[in-house]
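Need a sequence for this fold. Nothing fancy.
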């Protein structure tokens, strides 16, 4: 073990689970936090079964009290925090702007934007003394619009903005903050999309097929490593070329 601790929100599924497994393999103690605590336990157990150290906790990132409680538990039990991967997210309904339900818009923003803010706000004070890396999982929808996805597009643009703002504020404290923007990745979130919609989006992917959660985790592992010491504030697509359009 490298003695460092990584917290992964949304770690119970898809990309977050792949990040948890990869950082566990790389020697981090891994805290898997998810609103689905059973899923978080399954991933934490897999990290431990592979020879690492996994722990699971329930968190609702859209609730600042729940986030504060999580960070308290992490510090209590692990004593340090070196890496945060903000991966918890929801897609919201596929509806044009005029029909988009207001409560659904609010829910997407609360989870995808406020959640990232709450976790950074609670984690940063601990990281300022010792340094660390925050990776916010944005999306290609943070740089390009996808039809009928207005809340998700707005939220992911905001995640990239929050990342830049925090990177600039805390670079002098040894904390790097970056975003990663997946394109179409095989995960439960993508499986929930209508098949014809998915096929249409894939037509815009030069590499012609979806990526795997592990492809995102590989990039996250690099960005959290010391080799990436000169990288902060930037967004890093892993999208099969989608953003070339
Ligand atoms: N799959 C893709 O193609 C894709 C593309 C671009 C960006 N992303 C982003 O990657 C991230 C992970 O997506 P995924 O594909 O692995 O999806 P997923 O649905 O497999 O995983 C999301 C996880 O977040 C958890 N979660 C949802 N709301 C939460 C909350 N309020 N508090 C705590 N946990 C919560 C879920 O329980 C789930 O375990 C998301 O931020 C998503 O927007 C995914």
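Here you go.
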């Amino acid at each position: 073990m490298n003695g460092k601790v990584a917290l992964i929100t949304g770690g119970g599924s898809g990309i977050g689970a792949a990040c948890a497994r990869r950082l566990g393999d790389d020697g981090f103690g891994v805290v898997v936090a998810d609103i689905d605590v059973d899923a978080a336990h399954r991933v934490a157990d897999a990290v431990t079964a592979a020879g690492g150290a996994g722990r699971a906790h329930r968190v609702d990132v859209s609730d600042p009290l729940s986030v504060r409680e999580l960070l308290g538990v992490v510090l209590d039990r692990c004593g340090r925090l070196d890496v945060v991967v903000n991966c918890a997210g929801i897609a919201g309904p596929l509806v044009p702007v005029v029909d988009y339900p207001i409560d659904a818009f609010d829910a997407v923003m609360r989870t995808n934007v406020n959640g990232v803010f709450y976790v950074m706000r609670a984690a940063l004070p601990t990281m300022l003394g010792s340094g660390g890396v925050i990776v916010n999982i944005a999306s290609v929808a943070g740089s390009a619009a996808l039809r009928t996805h207005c809340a998700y597009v707005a939220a992911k643009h905001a995640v990239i903005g929050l990342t830049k703002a925090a990177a600039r504020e805390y670079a002098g404290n040894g904390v790097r903050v970056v975003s990663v923007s997946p394109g179409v990745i095989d995960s439960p979130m993508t499986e929930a999309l209508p098949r014809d919609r998915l096929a249409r989006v894939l037509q815009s992917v030069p590499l012609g097929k979806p990526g795997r959660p592990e492809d995102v985790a590989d990039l996250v592992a690099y960005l959290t490593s010391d080799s990436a010491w000169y990288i902060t504030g930037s967004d890093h697509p892993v999208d099969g070329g989608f953003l070339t359009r």
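For context: Strands lie at 5-9, 29-34, 53-58, 83-86, 132-137, 175-182, 235-238.
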